[in-house]
Design goal:
- The chain starts with 25 loop residues before the first helix and ends in a 6-residue tail after the last helix.
- The N terminus is likely disordered.
- The protein is built from two helices and no strands.
- It has a domain of 44 residues.
């Protein structure tokens, strides 16, 4: 039986990503821009992959997007 604590890469803390300090991807930038607009927050295009992931999570909570229903 698999250990439930191992999880997948999508569940790994962004601070532990080996590529987390690289510039955010185009997909992250596009989604983050949408979320920022919806939340009335400024869009920071200079974020790293890890920073963008955390910001996406934060804005998803604020906008209600990405919430499993």
């Amino acid at each position: 039986m698999a250990d439930a604590s191992t999880g997948s890469n999508t569940e790994k803390d962004p601070d532990e990503w080996t590529t987390g300090d690289e510039p955010m991807t185009g997909a992250q930038a596009s989604y983050l821009k949408t979320l920022s607009d919806e939340a009335g927050e400024p869009f920071d295009e200079g974020l790293t992959k890890a920073e963008a992931s955390k910001r996406i999570d934060e804005l998803q909570q604020r906008t209600g997007r990405g919430v499993d229903g």
